[in-house]
Amino acid sequence: MFARRLFPLLLLLTLCGCEQVSNALDLPDPKKAAALAEADGKAIGSACRHAGRSLEDCYALNAKAQKAAVFAGWREMNDYMMQNNLPTVPSLIQSPVQATQTAQSATEASPAATEPSNTASPAEQRPPRRSRATQ
Fold first, then answer.
1. Residue 86 lies in a domain
2. 127: left (phi over 0), alpha (psi -120 to 50) or beta
3. CB 41 within 8 A of CB 66
4. Which residue of 25, 55, 108, 122 sits 20 to 30 Å from the alpha carbon of 132, by its own alpha carbon?
5. DSSP 1-47
6. In angstroms, rounded to a whole number, what is the distance separating the alpha carbons of residues 54 and 86?
7. Distances (CA, A) of 95 to 91, 115, 126
8. Which residue range(s) make up the domain with 85?
9. Structural domain tally of the chain?
């Protein structure tokens, strides 16, 4: 009788430590979440350094990322780029703060800039390309 009650209890205790059960039930794992946040922060920091952004801009653009992880990634990429003499690759997309400042200064400078114009785009002004067969 005692063994019948003890066996399920022991079985339950062994299954509670099993990672497969927690994965099957989609239970959050704080260690995995912290490691993922750390890796994301390092990736964000290294990408900011590679793009030539300052650390403060990187913090402002990625407010939800861990600042310590962003700094660690930025510093690692900085060391790597210095060792291998790699240039920065500037971003072609403006940050949201810069885009709004540029838009505000353009509307203040000329109010006609917001009106649509009927001029052709530079692509339409160019002569058509010749095919390689005619060259």
1. yes
2. beta
3. yes
4. 122
5. -HHHHHHHHHHHHHHHT-HHHHHHTT---HHHHHHHHHHHHHHHHHH
6. 17
7. 9, 24, 31
8. 30-90
9. 1
Taking the whole predicted model, whether its pTM rises above 0.70 is answered as no
Q: At what angle do helices 67-84 and 30-50 cross, to 10 degrees?
A: 40
* Rounded Cα–Cα distance for residues 37 and 76 (Å): 17
The single-letter code of the amino acid at 18 is C
* pLDDT computed for residue 45 by the predictor: 95
In a domain, 83, yes or no: yes
Question: What average pLDDT is seen over the chain?
Answer: 78
82: in domain: yes
- Measured between alpha carbons, how far is 64 from 66 in angstroms, rounded to an integer? 7
CB–CB of 114/107 below 8 Å?
A: yes
| Span 125-130, average pLDDT | 64
68 — phi, psi (to 5°)?
A: -65, -40
Alpha carbons 18 and 53: distance in angstroms, whole number: 44
Considering only CA atoms, which of 67, 123, 58, 121 is closest in space to residue 91? Answer: 58
- In sequence order, the 6+-apart residues with CB closer than 8 A to the CB of 88 are 49, 50, 51, 52, 81
